[in-house]
Amino acid sequence: MSYSAVAKRHQKYGKGKHVIEIDEIALARPEDLKQKLIQIFASEAFKPPVLPTVAFELMELSRRTNINLSEVRVVLERDPMVASSVLKVAQSPIYATRVGLRSLEDAVCRLGLHGVRDVVWQVVMKMRVFRVPGYDHVMSQIQSHCVATGHIARAVCGYTSIANDYAFLCGLLHDVGICGVLIAISENRPKAAPELDLLWPTINEIHAACGGHMAKMWKLAPDIQIVLAEHHRFDPTNMPHPLVATITVAERLAQDAGWPALSEALQSECGYIDVVPDSRFDAACDALGLTPGTIDLIRADVERLREQLGPGQQEATGSAQ
Fold this sequence. Notes:
- By secondary structure, this protein is mainly α.
- Helix 8 crosses helix 13.
- It is globular.
């Protein structure tokens, strides 16, 4: 059955499927909580959030060669809500040019196939994944962090020989496992959502593996699956994929520029976790051949991204509600 058919028949469109007892989680020891969440994601009953079919159709188109951009427009037109959101994002400062957009066709021509695919995934993630009742403020921060990491990852690739085909998507999705865990915890809660300081150490430990599992269930490209699962395990002696180093650098630069996964207040409350330490950042830079001078150039690019994304990021991505 296609994703669109599932979406139409699913009463909780955009939600995952799981079985969990929140009261048990609230009382669980950290190791027990870890095992419970791992069992949920490993269970055949677990399903990742159902996404609009347009996202998967564009992913498939992006793997082909000699695509006519009119095919991209036709796919977008099948989902007016996503299409209108793509138009709005395409007119945001980060994509804008001196020539205004008059139609969806103009947006497709401006962004290109990969650009449209990336924007569509940004939109549908906002619609279906970066929305967890009880954790709204946290999810807003994680969304900003992931969008910024995606743009920075694409910028980093411009200073290396690494193809940037999936750089933005890997940055955008790298913390999707956090969303998946919080969705699994929050949907059937009989009471208030458990406090984040109780959950975060466990989430921090397992979210990369959970993200890789979700990417596999969505049947995303193997490259994306690897990067999501390994993005916290960068090792210069055994690098599973060059984009792991790229995301390591991009995530640290996002944190330094004011886009951490959690705010300073929440980090103080929950512990300074899901951060890239100096040693891992330096090792990733070395693996990519990025000199201190090159890093300074990338930081200048990040400052320009801050001006383009800035407060307008929420407005641009928040249109898909």
